[in-house]
Amino acid sequence: MADKHTNLIVSSSPHVCNPADTANIMRDVVIALMPALGCAIYVFGFRALLLTAVCVAACVFFEWAYRKALHKEQTIGDWSAVVTGVILAFNLPAGFPIWMAIIGCFVAIVIVKQLFGGLGQNFANPAIVGRIVLFVGFATYMTTWPVTGHMSGAILAHAGADAVSGATPLALYNLGEEVPSHMEMFLGYINGSMGEISALALLIGGCYLVFRKVISPAIPVSFLATVAVLSLVFGRDPLFDLCAGGVMLGAIFMATDYVTSPITTKGRIIFGIGCGLITMLIRNYGSYPEGASFAILLMNIITPHIDVWTRPHINGVPKAKKGGAK
Amino acid sequence: MSSGKHLNGIHVQHCKNTAGLAVIPFPLPEKVYIPMSQNIGAPCQPVVAVGDHVKVGQLIGDCDRPVSAPIHASVSGDVVGIETFMDQMGRDDVHVIIQSDGKQEVAETVKPPVINSKAEFIAAVRASGVVGLGGATFPMSIKFNVREPAHVDTFIVNGAECEPYITVDHAAMLSNGADIVECLRTTMKWLEIEKGVIGIESNKPDAIEIFKDLTKDDANIEVLELRQVYPQGAERVIIYESTGRHLIAGKLPADVGCIVSNLNSMLKLGMFLKTGMPLVSKSITVDGNCIAKPQNLDVPIGTMINEVIDYCGTKGDIRKIILGGPMMGRAIPRDDFGVMKGNSAILCFDETFGAQRKETACINCGRCVAGCPMNLVPTKLAKAWERKDIDTLREYDVTTCMECGCCGFSCPARKQLNFEIKQAKGWVMAEDRKAAEKAKAEAEAAKAKEGGNK
Q1: Which of A135, A211, B38, B168 has the fewest CB within 10 Å, making it most exposed?
Q2: Given this model, what pLDDT does residue A3 score?
Q3: B346 and B375 both lie in a single domain
Q4: Which residues of chain B lie closer than 8 angstroms to A5, CB-CB?
């Protein structure tokens, strides 16, 4: 009797795991964002790429520097800061000043994410809060939309002869002016934040994420469906509302952020409906032309409550008995 | 009866490298080390002494407590030691050590049992020494002897074999299908159960074919094709898939009218009923990326695990040895343990497979929730355990966990959800027991006081 194989590793089961880890998942999100980035570069030119690169670099740097300064384990390898950087950049106009974008990255990574304990602990989506802070702090720059030759005639007509600054379809709609055609909006020949212009590019990314099982379709579908239904109810144009503004980007990439969205399918549907509802209420009644980011932020905040309300039911335990005799 | 609904689960890589390989006998070991704790319940006491000559199938350990199963000699030879040392479960355990004489003489006691009544059948089941061979090691005789027999209407043979790598049940189905069906019929007859179900995961179409053919004239036996979703072989899952009934934590299958038996247990019981040879060997899959020749072996109980590994040949540096499948099996710290009844696989892996994965923060992705067959919220339980929050653990039904490992498998943050929940479950159950004891003691004290006042 002798112990032949020594130095054995003892660990708890399961001894195998699904190949998908956090870094994999985040990398898939970055890949899914690429069609929209391509579209932004096509429409807005090199400045779009530069702004995205700066945001990614700033987010990764702030995460690295914060962890380094506080002697915490480095987490930049999980790609989550890259995702935040790209999404934050997508929420900015292509001509947005670089130094302001870096402030947005600081808010997103240091204040919203790291101060609450890093990945998994933040109560709101970092990119959304970054965007809202910039929107409130630098309102003029956040609503100065560059005009390029790739855009719809309706936008160019509004911009007029000087063509330095244009308006988004939602702004045109609120002004009661002619809006771009559905096809122009679907493809992205419009003005707006860099990453949100092309519904098609975002949908391609969304399909990739669903196909890779990174996200479940529950939130995007319930979000977009609610927007479409309410658009009809309010007597607006559903296709216009789906393609305009940040709804598509928000529904596919921001509302689906795991950390700040509910954990069950039922909860995710409630979350998506809530996002769609608030978005449309702001669009229709609010003073802002766009409400997707506020909608997602508000729903982020009530996510823990949704998780409690939609707790899965244990198989075979009668509902009435729960919490009773036991 | 399938309601069309299914319990949650996960998709695992099957890695059934030994599928289709027959179970071949392991060459006789020189010495066997037979532990006396081989079933859930009470351990056995040796009934032989050092110096005794024993034959194959001879009783060497037994226990008069109800939840127990006798243990028999797996080789013929002399008892050279009765010693206490650590067994593969990490317990200090009495081992009967037998030096084989190489003759494999069969004990005189080995003869087919005569059964004329249910009581005699149950006695025979106990005498067979068979326990739940899938790993739970619950004595078959206790499982069959339910409190309210009239309430039980379905007997389920569990041939799901949903753990990756393991193929011994599959091999048994291919080679001994008729014996298994016969044992099922005998069991159903004596236990007066109307309906038999043989559940087989659909990754074994050849076995399903064989059993459909064997039972085609028998309206009482259904061959149920199970989905390829882990853990179809978990008792609660297979009961739900077979009958649509939910078995909740703390209840026994008989409470929902079912008896579930491992397929190899039925085969070994059938052999005992036919020949009188009790459970003295165990079919084991030996596989893993460090095994040169993966195969299915019939290994005498008490054979050293390292002898089995060496017989199959090794390649590379073994860093992890798992007894059972990779989802629920146990990694052992040493390899000099005797094979026990509950072992169904010995899997050897190198560093690349065995290394601990680095844990990162939970990102709330919900994969553990989507994977849990019991509809628990594993991440919530694990977080509650980390902060020792017993109220949340109770509120979120931690004791419902059956430790199937789906949550830990799914977790992209590589958190050891299963391990944390297992510990949390143990803690809550211990606290509950303490509370119950305290309440009982208080009630008794109050009673005594009342009596004193009178």
Answers
A1: A211
A2: 61
A3: no
A4: 306, 309, 318, 321, 335, 348
- The verdict on residue B89 lying in a domain is no
Say what the pLDDT of residue A103 is. 96
Single residue among B355, B377, B392 that ends a domain in this structure: B355
Is the domain of B287 the same as that of B400?
no
**Identity at A295, one-letter amino acid code:** A
Domain count of chain B?
A: 2
CB burial readout B205-238, b (16+ within 10 A) else e: eebbebbeebbeeeeebbbbbbbbbbbbbbbbbb
Phi, psi values for residue B198, rounded to 5° = -110, 110
User: Residue A326: its pLDDT value, please?
Assistant: 34
Phi first, then psi, for residue B231 (nearest 5°) are: -105, 85
Mean pLDDT, rounded, for A114-136: 93
The C-alpha atoms of residue A193 and residue A146 are separated, in whole angstroms, by 10
**Based on the domain organization, do B174 and B272 belong to the same domain?**
yes
Of B343, B336, B338, which is closest to residue B132 (Cα–Cα)?
B343
The answer to whether A300 and A123 have CB atoms below 8 angstroms apart is yes
Q: Is the dihedral of CA B443, B448, B449, B454 positive or negative?
A: positive
Residues B218 and B305 in one domain: yes
Percent of all residues in chain A with a pLDDT value above 90, rounded to a whole number: 73
Residues B287 and B220 reside in one and the same domain: yes
Average pLDDT over residues A306-322: 80
B365:A25 CB<8 A = yes
Chain B residues near residue A9 by CB distance under 8 angstroms: 319-320, 331, 354-356
pTM higher than 0.80 for the full model? yes
A80 pLDDT more than 70: yes
> Could you tell me if A120 lies within 8 Å of chain B, comparing CB atoms?
yes
**What pLDDT, on a 0 to 100 scale, did the predictor assign at position B172?**
95
Owning domain of residue B277: 1-28+110-355
Question: pLDDT exceeding 90 applies to what percent of chain B?
Answer: 89
CB B279 within 8 A of CB B128: yes
Q: Token pair 């407590």 is at which residue?
A: B65
Specify whether the CB–CB gap between B156 and B142 falls below 8 A. no
Q: Decide if B72 is inside a domain.
A: no
Asked if B385 and B342 sit in the same domain, the reply is no
**Cβ atoms within 10 A of the Cβ of A304, count?**
14
Q: Report DSSP state, residue A312.
A: P
Model confidence over B391-431: pLDDT tens digits?
999 999 999 999 999 999 999 999 999 999 999 999 999 99
CB-based contact (8 Å) between A325 and chain B? Answer: no
Q: Do B413 and A120 touch (CB under 8 A)?
A: yes
Q: Which amino acid is it at B178?
A: A
**Mean of pLDDT values over B111-134:** 94
Residues B351 and B371 in one domain: no
Does one domain contain both B376 and B348? no
Q: What's the CATH code of the domain at B271? A: 3.40.50.11540
Residue A144 CA: distances (Å) to CA of A88, A130, A247, B185? 17, 18, 19, 81
Could you say which of B245, B354, B369 has the minimum Cβ distance to residue A312?
Answer: B369
Residue B58 lies in a domain: no
Is the ipTM higher than 0.85? The answer is yes
Distance from the Cα of A243 to chain B's closest Cα (Å) equals 27
- The pLDDT-based confidence of A290 (bands split at 50, 70, 90) is confident
The answer to whether residue B46 is domain-embedded is: no
